[in-house]
Amino acid sequence: MAQEEICPHMKALQELKQATKYECEECVKIGSDWVHLRTCQTCGATLCCDQSPHQHMTAHNHQTHHPVISSAEPGERWLYCYEDDSFAEY
Predict the structure, then answer these.
(1) Which of 78, 41, 77 is nearest to 61 (CA)?
(2) 38 exposed, middle or buried (CB, 10 Å; 0-12, 13-18, 19+)?
């Protein structure tokens, strides 16, 4: 993706945060399962995706307004910005 197409929130990232554990922090607390994991690029929280029953990462975005997430799935290298509805691979 051309640099000018990347949203300002993604351009502002200095370093990508990686998941420290392969689990949804919130699902673990309530004993629920998840489908895929995402990592918040503002605070580093790793939470479940929208295909998961509780959609914890989207709820996190609504509560905190942290705009950019990355996939925490092995082999996936992409970012998504909620605010700009923007996707980029890296």
Answers:
(1) 41
(2) buried
Entry pTM: 0.93
Block residue for tokens 């975005």: 61
- Per-residue pLDDT of 31-69, as tens digits, reads 999 999 999 999 999 999 999 999 999 999 999 999 999
**CA atoms within a 13 Å half-sphere pointing along the CA-CB vector of 20:** 6
The CA distance from 37 to 61, in Å, is: 14
Q: How far apart are CA 40 and CA 67, in angstroms?
A: 8
Give 18-30 pLDDT, tens digit per residue.
999 999 999 999 9
| Ordered structural domains, the chain, with CATH | 20-89 (3.30.40.10)
Q: Rounded CA gap, 72 and 45, in Å?
A: 10
Q: How many CB atoms lie within 10 A of CB 64?
A: 12
